[in-house]
């Protein structure tokens, strides 16, 4: 049995593989590395420092977080929008994976013009098990009688 033809194929395969490995562009992973570096650094948004995943906004690119978690950093506090309603971000606790928000239309005026219920239905958002909500409006016009207990 003559093994000579298989030795030539093996030798040709080794040479071809070596040449291919030497000429593969080294920049194939550079875009991924740049995105990783952009997303691994935390950022500051308005008055809240050290914000990371899943949030993005300001100088942090949109591929660094979920689309629903875009922060508007132009004011004195970050603002996040859910279902066309703006919320002021009061606190972000990265280690506990929690954040506290307040509706912007109630921030400077506790007597709403047109009160309504708001339910945040966004992927990746869950209310903590100990969350309770109580809304009391006082010293407002008598036309507003809204009490909500959960």
Model description:
The chain is an alpha+beta fold and 150 residues long. The protein is 21% helix and 23% strand. It is built from two helices and nine strands. It has helices at residues 4-23, 30-40; strands at 43-45, 48-51, 56-57, 70-72, 79-82, 85-93, 98-103, 134-135, 148-149. The strands form three sheets. Strands 3-4-5-6-7 form a five-stranded mixed sheet, with no helix packed on it. The radius of gyration is 27 Å and the shape is elongated. The termini are far apart. The relative contact order is 0.09. Mean pLDDT is 75; it is low at 144-150.
Order of the strands making up the biggest sheet: 3-4-5-6-7
As a percent range, the share of helical residues equals 10-25%
Low-confidence runs (pLDDT<50, min 5 residues)? 144-150
Number of contiguous helices: 2
Shape: elongated
DSSP summary, beta strand count = 9
Radius of gyration: 27 Å
> N-to-C terminal Cα separation, in Å?
85 Å
Largest sheet: 5 strands, mixed
How much strand? 15-25%
pLDDT averaged over residues: 75
Helices and strands, in order, run as HHEEEEEEEEE
Q: Given the helix and strand composition, which structural class is it?
A: alpha+beta
């Amino acid at each position: 049995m003559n093994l000579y033809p298989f030795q030539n194929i093996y030798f040709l395969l080794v040479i071809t593989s070596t040449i291919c490995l030497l000429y593969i562009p080294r920049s194939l992973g550079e875009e991924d590395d740049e995105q990783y570096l952009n997303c691994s650094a935390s950022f500051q948004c308005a008055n809240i420092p050290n914000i990371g995943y899943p949030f993005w906004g300001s100088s942090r690119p949109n591929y660094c977080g979920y689309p629903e978690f875009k922060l508007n950093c132009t004011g004195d506090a970050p603002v996040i929008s859910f279902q066309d309603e703006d919320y002021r971000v009061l606190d972000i606790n990265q280690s506990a994976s929690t954040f506290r928000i307040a509706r912007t239309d109630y921030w400077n005026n506790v007597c709403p013009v047109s009160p309504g219920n708001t339910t945040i239905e966004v992927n990746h958002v869950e209310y903590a098990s100990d969350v309770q909500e109580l809304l009391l409006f006082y010293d407002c016009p008598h036309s507003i009688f809204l009490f909500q207990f959960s």
